[in-house]
Protein 1
Amino acid sequence: MSTTTQELPTTGREIQLASRPHGEPVPENFRLAEAALPALEDGQILVRNQFISVDPYMRGRMNDVKSYSAPFELDKALDGGAIGEVIASRSAERKVGDVVVHSQGWREYGVVSAAETTLARTDLAPASAFLGALGMTGLTAYSGLLKVAGFKKGDAVFVSGAAGAVGSMVGQIAKAMGASRVIGSAGSAEKVAKLLELGFDAAFNYHDGPVAELLQEAAGDGGVDVYFDNVGGSHLEAAISVMNLRGRVAMCGAIEQYNSTEPPKAPRNLALAIGKRLRLEGFLVGDQREHAAEFAGRMGPWLADGTIHYDETIVDGLENAPQAFMDLLNGANTGKMLVKISD
């Protein structure tokens, strides 16, 4: 759809970081504001966002500490994954009407370099899928399991936070690739039931008792060869205790301690990694982009033939993005947490 200069917006709403959270984020840490949109420069496009991604890693960027990604600035818009329609373009690479994935989320409109966007084939899948199963979420699961943890057919796999966007993909990919057993942890009976529907061989609610005991019961005598860690802390400690010789851990997240104001109490059994010859490796999806084409080539057919399913928790309205983020950190989502901005 063509849009003339006269129709283009000059301002847009955005979610700003009003103050830095101490512990769990609260509504007062965020602000809904109206901001002027800069004029397009050569090579840039104006995108009307349709969906924005809500992700746990954003919690770390709200702290003013040195990390792998720069902290969010106070009184400035947050950013994150988004997908939307190009409504103005000064680039030969992108035309008006294209639907693109980019990183200027948490606002109604994004002014971005066309070179930093990815074209979304919405004729093949809904736009929201390109922020989840067909986007960075899926690539995180695929590359973390296969490239970082070195999964091979016959491995027994444990996934923590398994009902979340990444975890649910990890378990299903492992099953599709020939895992001998896939175990997941989740935070409610409903989520446990969902994991079993998705094909997990076993799942447990980590609120039902000590995680180490629940995992030991689920793993049985076979132990675990690969642990995909989204939680850290007590889950990592439990996984180390049941891992087999030369087991591998892909360390993707540590949501158990994101809001903590005290040093973590676990894992206390890290020395077991020596005798078991375990490999624990942290990773960022940004380092895995070389596998994007391979991932897309596999995930597309898996989704098409029903081998892999995905869930979404969609919240309507930009103004509700902060609450969606707070709910995400408390496990209120099943699958990918998204905020719908426009049609």
Protein 2
Amino acid sequence: MRRKAGLILLALAVFFAALSPLLRWYAFPRLAKVPPNTYQAMVLEAKDATLLDYGTMTAKKVPKVTIVQTLKGNVQASEKIERTAGRDVVVWDGLSYVQGPDGKMVSEIPERYIFDAHSQEPVHATGEMVDGDPVSRDGIEFKWPFLTQKRDYEYFDAQARTTSPIHYKGTQDFRGVKVYYFEQTVPWTKVPFPKAMPVQGITPESVARTGTTRWYTTVRRFWVEPVTGAPVYGEEIHKEELRGGTLLGGRDKVTAFAGHVKMREGYIEHTVNLVKSQRQLVLLMTSYLPWGFLILAVLLLSLALHLEARGRRPGDPAPARAAEPEPVSA
């Protein structure tokens, strides 16, 4: 009986020892993914900013500019793309809506971001766009991969429609969460005018006829929780200028927007709490369960060997032999 129990424990030890790496290196990459129906909204503010008054074409100081960014998962579009892509795909329909201190629209830029649900690598498909213009992204946008590494990544800039490195700058503590700090600098780049302009009757085409061009630069900063790959905080030092053309009345350039854009406090707290809860789910599959199964396998193996050793221990009394029958004489 003892020998049978030892064999069962040994089989369980082998099972859990094999399950540990399978869960981490096989199951996790296939099970961990961004859900296709995600919806999130984030509000950012630039206080004491500079904003262009299109009525007078002069830059003015304003108390606050607000940017509302929304990302909404398009399940129907993702299922359609998956049928031809042969992998799990997420489609995010995003909108960046900028409004001045009076609540009026400054600009709104929609975009569609299509990416692999597991690796966050871009997936090129019909409908991928920024402000109605087709694009073919390289690099990540909005979210880092699960188990983010301490290295540089390629990051797509929606304003410039270009990809450039975003650099790992170190590990920090952000409100009790270990994060990786990344920074990207986009140099002055000529960019298209938004299709939705703040003044009725003014269109990108009409501005282009004046010879005036739009230029943009930014320093982009993210604090990323590495287990989930989710940014817990982000900010930009953002500048835009209009240059040349007859629209400026002989001036070389005028500031269209300048400000230090930061996430609003209430959204920081919500984001940190959300990422903390998601972090535990990822750690369950990458650390807690694999290491737990491995430790359990060692314990079961030790117990199996202990039972086997006890079954073979010397000095145990020999089993009693059956009494031989006495001879019967005739």
